[in-house]
Amino acid sequence: MTITSNYSNVDVRVSRLISDFKNWTKNIKKFIKYSNEVTVFIKPIELKTTLGRVNYIEKTIEIDPRFTLIQLRKTLIHELVHYEQYRDNRLQIKNNIWLWEGKQYDNTLNYESYKELPWEREARKRTKKIVNKLFNIY
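User: That's the sequence. What structure does it adopt?
Assistant: Structure tokens below.
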């Protein structure tokens, strides 16, 4: 996996995130089956409420660096969980139709409803568990 950033205003946090990830690469694979094919871009995202997002077709993850180091760590792990869900075909997106384990879900939901979708609930739960194990912060 490659992590890149051109965002100079938060270099300390971004550098720490990159360093953290290199340090926990072996340990994180105990929790997430991610692939080295994914590239992480650390750059501002135009949607100010979005900390990160995955582009499954391009095999990329974007992380917005304007947040705290803890938020950056959680977001990277959360998005890696989503990438794993997609690679395992549990989460599928076909012709703008969202499928979770074969069941179709509405993709036009507001943010509060979106957070309750099964893949989002799983990603949040697993992220918390992984962050607890990797950083012993909770």
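Residues 2-135 form a domain with the Collagenase (Catalytic Domain) fold (CATH 3.40.390).
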